[in-house]
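Tokenised fold entry reproduced for absentees:

. . .
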Amino acid sequence: MLELDTIIMDYLKPFPTITREDLVYLTIHRPTVTVRLKIINQKLYQLGSHRNGRLDSLVWLLQETLQEHIISDCEFVLFYDDSINDENVALVKGKPMIVATSVADHSFILYPDFTFHVFPEYNIKDHESYCNELVNTIPFHKKIPKLVFRGDMHPHTRPYRTKYIRTDRYYDCQHYDIVCSSGKSFLSRKEKNNYKYYLHLNGRHDNAYSSALKYGLCNSVVFYSAPTMYREFWQHPSIFKEGIHYIHTHNPVELEDKLRYYLTHKREAAQIANNALTFFKTYLWKKSTIKYYIQKLLNEYAKRMTYQPTLEQEDYLLPKYEM
């Protein structure tokens, strides 16, 4: 996976050396939603024993990776909240913190996030099986030629979304179909397969990423993505490209212009949809690919460490997490 190796090196480029002092500093000044982890002799340890759902998902994925790959002894601080912003990382800028969800314009190290897999209400028991259920079975040319948005529209929690959509200009447009993720207008991810075009907007409070983009790529659709500061590990511009895998739209007017363009340039739209599906199959479908990324990232990280991590009294051996 040469492309993944390349983006890993890019994420690690700001950190040619990682010192014990870096980790001590991160431990003292880190945001509250972080954990200090160690891998020693293929076993995973945590400083302290606190747990929550998000951390469980990271532990599960890392333990599975350790069963299949050798990872050099290393020590790292992992951030596992929804987003990075100036406020919650003000004291740790420029430090080698690994970020498990999303990142703005800060130089942190991106790590895969499969948080929703550990919450029963999302009914995601296995990544590949879940993707098999979602994957598109309807040819692009047979789908409904409308743009659909699925998500919470409450004005107090997602003001950016309401600004982007709730205007007379859009409610009356024949090519738009705005739905809700709950109540009578609920639309499942699988039901979204019926549409050709998806609108992707920011996550909760407009300051986090949304997993809808990741899983929507397997539906063979054209994604219109509004501006966002946040991205996951796979959204590196060297492999995930505007105009090839998705359409970037800066504002509602540009969205309408670009939508009308691809409504009349059907062959170009179909090619973008096919590119998105191919991208998903290449980088996001197989759990083996995700595990490869994790082991490669941590092994390259370990090479940059200037010290050998050792076990201390506060280190807690994490038990095997069963999904």
